[in-house]
Amino acid sequence: MTGARPERLTFSPALSCVDCKQDTNRGLIYPMSSLAWQHLPLCDEHDEGEGAAMMRELYADNYEERRLEILLRAAGRCENVIDGQCFPHGLGTVKMSRAYNPFFEQLFIHHPNNDPWNPNAVMIAVCASCHMKLYRKPEANGKVPARKQGYKVVSITHLLSGLAGVGFRALYTEECRVSWRFEQCAYEAEAADMLDALAMCLHWLGAEVRDLQEALAQAEQRRLTDMVTRVQAEERRLCDAALRGAACCIEGDRKL
After folding, report:
1. 176-184: long-range pairs with CB below 8 Å, 24+
2. Cα 139 to the chain's mean position, in Å?
3. What's the gap between Cα 53 and its chain centre?
4. Do residues 98 and 159 lie in contact, with contact meaning Cβ atoms separated by under 8 Å?
5. pTM of the model as a whole
6. Phi/psi-derived region of residue 186, left when phi > 0, alpha when psi is between -120 and 50, beta in every other case
7. How far, in Å, are 119, 242, 245, 249, 250 from residue 256 at the CA level?
């Protein structure tokens, strides 16, 4: 059951949307196990079809298991710490929405380090109010957005479009593999998929950079060695010239 696709759900009475707190009668429900589900109320604006389901791709494979562990650890209480104390809201607390509709408090999983893809990420269970506040970070102008920012999803198409500007090209072959090429260095190869192609290109570029850095370091070492050799040779020449001059002076004094 873990990792199963979410199902759409309509319900009554209305609950607050997890994104904007507007009252809604629809949302998604995620089967977590045969006895546990995750319910996500979403208003029309934030219920973006498969978009919510695709957001699961941002999370580590063990997220569902760890989520259940965190919820059990929290024991129904918000774990957000404010001024050294945990927030008083807890699972099942009766609250009032902005439209004055009663609803029961839910707990959400928060990643303090913003790394949901990390299988060992720090995770805490927080109430809806804390969840919103933790995501409402001040923008560049100092204003706090009215809605949480969340994680931004970049499509493969958009990513490839941006990389095309620096010479990266990737196309599917008839064998459903990906043929890619980096124009700047005329390097090309095949990969299992688009992400694998990008990873291979970055790995190759990293190796090229390391080789270049090693070559530059060796060239600099040779330059310094040659410089030291020339300085030593010049010092020996000057020393020999000084010795010859001293010998001539001594010989002249003897003749006098």
Report:
1. none
2. 19
3. 19
4. no
5. 0.42
6. left
7. 94, 21, 17, 11, 10
pLDDT at 51: 42
Scan for tokens 């562990």, then name that residue: 69
The residues pairing with 88 across neighbouring beta strands, listed in sequence order, are: none
By mean pLDDT, which of 34-38, 88-92, 115-119, 180-184 is the weakest? 34-38
Return the closest-CA partner of residue 91 out of 111, 108, 69: 108
**For residue 255, what pLDDT band results from cuts at 50, 70 and 90?**
low
Rounded CA separation 134/41 (Å): 19
Spatial neighbors of 42 by CB under 8 A, at least 6 apart, are 17, 18, 19, 24, 26, 27, 28, 52
Run of H or E residues at 134: helix 128-135
Question: So where are the chain's domains?
Answer: 7-135, 156-238
**Mean pLDDT within 40-66:** 66
pLDDT digits (tens, 9 = 90+) for 137-146: 666 676 655 5
- Among 188, 206, 186, CA closest to 197: 188
- Please enumerate in sequence order all residues whose Cβ is within 8 A of that of 188, keeping only pairs 6 or more positions apart, or say none: 179, 180, 181, 182
DSSP assignment letter at 57: G
